[in-house]
Amino acid sequence: MRVLRGAGGAGLWILATLLMLVALILCVTILLLPIGIPLFAVGLRLYMRGVKLFLPRPKDVRQAGEKAAKDLGKQVHRTKKDMGKRAHHTTKDVGKRAPRTQKKVGKGSRRLWSSVTGH
């Protein structure tokens, strides 16, 4: 569908260019000026229609925006879920390591204290 719309837009641009060229030639001759000016305006309108054919329809833009928002919501939900799992495993690991770490710190601080005080 996009290809057909693009081809139609290109065809309108070519037609508008030719029409505006004829209008400019008519405007050069003073007697045909009243015909050239409206013809030039018609050419400009054809250019605008061609541009509208090249751009996506509002319905397509709205659907793409809704899909992007939905995908972003899913991605945020997955990330939030993964972060929760990581945090849960981290607290489990810390809970297992804490007694060993306390023993190591305790021994090190006792050694340090004994070397400082001399006892």
Automatic annotation (TrEMBL):
Keywords: Membrane, Transmembrane, Transmembrane helix. This is Uncharacterized protein. Residues 65-74, 81-96 have a biased composition (Basic and acidic residues). It comes from Kribbella pratensis. Residues 97-110 have a biased composition (Basic residues). Residues 65-119 are annotated as: Disordered. The chain crosses the membrane at residues 12-42.
